[in-house]
Every structure is written in C-alpha cells, then in structure tokens.
Amino acid sequence: MVPGTKAAENAPVPATLPQGSDMLTTFLSLMPDAAVAVDGKGMIVSVNERTEAFFGYAAEEVQGKSIELLVPERFRHAHRRRRSEYSGDPRTRPMGAGLDLYARRKDGSEFPVDISLAPIGGGGQLVVAAIRDITERQAAQSAQAQLAAIVQSSADGIFSMSHRGVITSWNPGAEAMFGFSPDEVVGRHIGLFFPDDPILEELLDDTRSGHVPRSKDTRWQRREGKSLDVAISVSPLALGNEPGFSVLVRDITVHKEAEAQLRRQARWQAATAEIRLSLLSEASLDSSLNLVCKWAAELANATAAALVIVEDDRSHIAASAGDRDTLATISHPDQVATPVTQAIASGKPATAATNRGAGVHARAFPLTLPGKDGPEAAALVIFGEEASHLGPDADETIGSLATQAILAFELANVRSERDRLLISADRERIARDLHDLVIQRLFGAGLRLQGALSLIDNPQAAARVASTVDDLDVTIKEIREAIFALESAPGTGLRVKALEALAYAAEALGFRPAVSFHGATDWEIALPVQLEAVAVLREALSNAARHAHASRVEVHITLEDELSVLVADNGVGIRDPGRLSGIANARARAELLGGSLDVSAAEGGGTRFEWRVPVPAHASLVPDGDD
C-alpha cells in the first residue's frame, strides 16, 4: 500500500504469537483496525472482519492471494519494492512513513490509509499489517490547511486573540492594512494598538453572551497615525483550552468615499434645484446671487462666500453669505484682491490668505458675467480658516455653482430687455395713436380755420383766428417731437447701439475692441443719424475682422459740433480702400448727411478709419434714459 498521508496511531502488535491458525485468527479479530496477516512471499494468510468491511472482500476471496490485490494498480510496483526491503529488515514500524498511502476496495474505489507493520513468529515468517481509514482525518486536515491558506491570502485583516485581549495570530492582510508585523503584535494586548474603541468592546461583549453580532463600522489608526475607516466583525474561537476571538477587519475607505460622494451629489442637486427655482420665480438678481453664495459656502464646507465683480480695475462685492465675522474681515473687496486677481489672470481657481483677515484664506473661482457694456470679469470666492479646506475637492462643485451666477445675470438681462421691449411697444402705440388721431384732427382743424379766414370781415376776429392757426401749427410740431421721443425708447441711444455693435464684432475679432466716448454721446441725436453711424461702425469693425488681421482695435466716438466715428487697428492695413464696397457705402452715407470719410494708414501700422457728419440743427438732444 503506497503513497497516501502520514502514518497514524496504531494498536501495538506483539512480536510473537502462539502457533496455530486459530490463534492467529483470534488475535486479528481483537485488533481495533483492519488487519491482514501476510507471509514472506507477500501472500495473504488471514484477515479480520474489519478488513472484509473495509475492502468488500470475503476472507476466502483474499486468502492465498497477493497483498497487492488491496493496492491500486499504479502503486503495485513500488509496493513490491518496499515489501521486499521490509522483508530484509522486519521490525515493528509504520509503512511508508511520511508518504501518502492508498488502498483499493473490491469495487475499485480508493481511500487514504495509515499502515503499521509488525513481524510475528520466528524469523519474520508472518507480517501483520494494521490498516486504518484516514479519509475523515485527511478531509479535516485539508479543510484546516485550506482555511489557513485563505486567512494568509486574504486582503482583509484577520487576527485572533485570547479572551484577555492578547493577540495570538496576525495575517498578512492585517500587516498590510495597519503596518504592524506579526512579531510586533503577537503576544501583546490589542489595546496597545487600537485603544478605547467602544465598537470593538461592544462586539466582544455580544460574542461572550453567545450572540453573533453583525459587523460594525469604526475608525482605527495605522502605524503612521493615519485614520482608516474599517468594518469589524468578531467570532468566537477556541484557543486550546481557553476561549478566544477571531476578528475580521475590512478596509471600507472606498465605500465611505462613495457614500460621501453620494451625499455631496444629493446636496448639489438640492442646491441647483433651489437656485433654479429662485431664477424661474423671477426673484431679484441680488436674492439669486446671495443664494448662490449661501450654497457655495455650504457645499465647500467653507465659513463664507462672496461674489466679487471687477470693473475698470476696481471691484465690488455683489453678493455674500455665511459667517458674519468672516464676512466682516473681507468687507472690502481689496482684501481679497490677491486670489481674485490671480484667478482672473490664470483662468483657474487660486488660493491665498486674505489681505487683512487673520487666519482666513480665500479660494477664488473666475467667471465672466454678461454686463451691460459687455463681458465683466468676476470671481466666486469661498473663505475658510485653512487653505486645505478650500480645495481642490470642492473645485468642480463651486465651479458649477459659478455657472449659476452667470445664468442669474443672463436672466436678469433678458428680463430687463423684455421689460424695455414692453415699454417700447407701449411708447410706439402711443406715438402711433398721436400721429394717426390727434395730429390729423389738429391739422384738419387748422385747415378749416384757414379756409374760414376769408369769410371773416372783422379784422380783429380774423387776427385771432390766424393766431389760433399758428398755435395749432406749434402744437402739431411739439406733438411730432414728442412722437419722435416716444419712438426712441430709453436705452436705445447711440451709446447703447454702439456697444451692441462692439459686442457683436468681438465674436468675429476674437477679442473685445477698446472703446471711448467723448462729448455729449450720452444724449440721443436724430434717429436717422444714429442708424447711419452704427451701420458705418459695423462696417469698419467687419473690415478689421476680415482684412486687417489685427490684434487690437480702438473705437473713439465723439459728439461735439459734429459726430465723429474713429476706428483704428494695428493690422496689415488696406492697400486699396477704393476697391472695398463697404468703404464706398460708408463714404456715400457720410456725403448724404453732408459729411466725409477718411481712410488712411495709422501711425505705427494698421488702418485709421474716420467718419464725420454734422449734427442736424433741428435735432434736439434728449437725455438717454439708461445712461
């Protein structure tokens, strides 16, 4: 019988037996294991009943047969060699010590065995083999080895400890998780490494009471002091004669981070829902911006937040929310100038200490707001006691909130334009009614009075009627001027129209032209002149975008004795201005109004385009409602 597991305990076999087959049979029957008596040639002499039960052979089927009948075929050659070696030195000993031995039943099935050999009789004429089935023991050993392998290869931390809290084992997963080697922890109390943890104490107490507690979350520290989110579970474990515990520790850092991310997403959805509801309900711009600041501070775990708008190198705080003491330290926008300037210049979030707020750091997120006179640079700023609290984890969230501030400005501009259009529509209706009804009636009344003058003989009465006709003419003129004023709605003066043309041209140019206004340009002039001037300005900007390849364009609009529209660029210049139809149109527009157009090379390179027309003497100046 050949390769199987280790040799097991076997009942002692006496070195000699009384002679006689009956005595041999009686002896074998008294053995606790299956027993086979084999002669010097390897032939089976006798077997006991346990052998018959193990192998399925009746005694008469095996007696006189070779012992190899009970050995699997693939092991028989090696078995004969070992049997021959044993015959040369017979003594009581295990067979194949340190090897795995197997036996074969009558039906061909195999099972692992331990075998002990003992010679009996003089000269080793007979050898008794005691055979023990170790299937269950081998399965238990295999399960134990498999469990040990699982524990050793597990990424989870697994360790055991006595009921007194002394650590008795420590797997590689625990070493990787916490940084302590087995030599450092085995034999020492767990409180030295994970002190005063009420969660572990609760689980140990439940296990002592016979309950099977569920795993619970807690925080343990690694060797270097960093806290680790873990889930621990405790099971009872027998350690020799003492009760003990098995502890499984799982790193749940990723799980906790995912939960935190879900919570942040839920808060972000709540923030956007509230902000958009405010925008759709037509709340005031200030109210919406304060709401954006409130959520910015909350989502970033900051103490406060503010929206800072920069105009012409000057800035002001448009909205704020959060801790009053923090806001008091940054009550003036100059105190957060450093991070705001850095953010706007780089186009990326920037963090710096506030200029006066002791211990207060600011992180600024740049944004471009749609302003009345074009895009405005701004920054959404959050404040905290430590710079590390302000980013970069919050960057994406606060950057998204910044877009809500932009949306608030865009909606405010749309509503303002809507209201302006509504007012303009009402003004146009009133002007139309005055023109179609009132002026026509007054004009008809004047004609009738003029026709009646020839019928009046009394000179005084005729003079009075003539005076009344003159008054009607003056009234008609005044009403027509009022109609013109009504048709020129507030906010649509030359300045506004020019800024609209500049904003439109910025898309084609790739940058915003510089603009300046001189003289009484905040006042409206005659509408036909406005339209011609804006058309010429658009044409000049279009030429600069299409032909000049300029990196800078300057626009100067002056209204004094005449209206001047000057456009200068630093581009490649215009070789033959007369060949451009746009310039020809601009010149024609100037000449129709009694003016002129001058297109020449600019000093230092580029093109200088200047359109001049006189201001009509009859054009009355009316204050621009928006400017």
Tell me the overall shape: rod-shaped
- Count the strands? 23
Q: What structural class should be given to the helix and strand makeup?
A: alpha+beta
- Which CATH architecture of the largest domain? 2-Layer Sandwich
Brief digest:
By secondary structure, the chain is α+β, with helices and mostly antiparallel strands. 43% of the residues lie in helices and 25% in strands.
Describe this structure in words.
The protein has helices spanning 21-30, 49-55, 59-62, 76-88, 135-153, 172-178, 182-185, 198-208, 253-280, 285-299, 324-329, 337-346, 395-453, 459-487, 494-509, 527-548, 581-592; strands at 34-39, 44-47, 93-94, 101-104, 110-120, 126-133, 157-162, 167-170, 216-221, 227-239, 242-251, 304-311, 314-322, 350-353, 361-371, 374-384, 514-519, 523-524, 553-559, 562-569, 596-601, 607-614, 622-623. By secondary structure, it is of the alpha+beta class. The strands form five sheets. Strands 1, 2, 3, 4, 5 and 6 form a six-stranded antiparallel sheet that branches. Strand 1 (34-39) and strand 2 (44-47) form a beta hairpin.
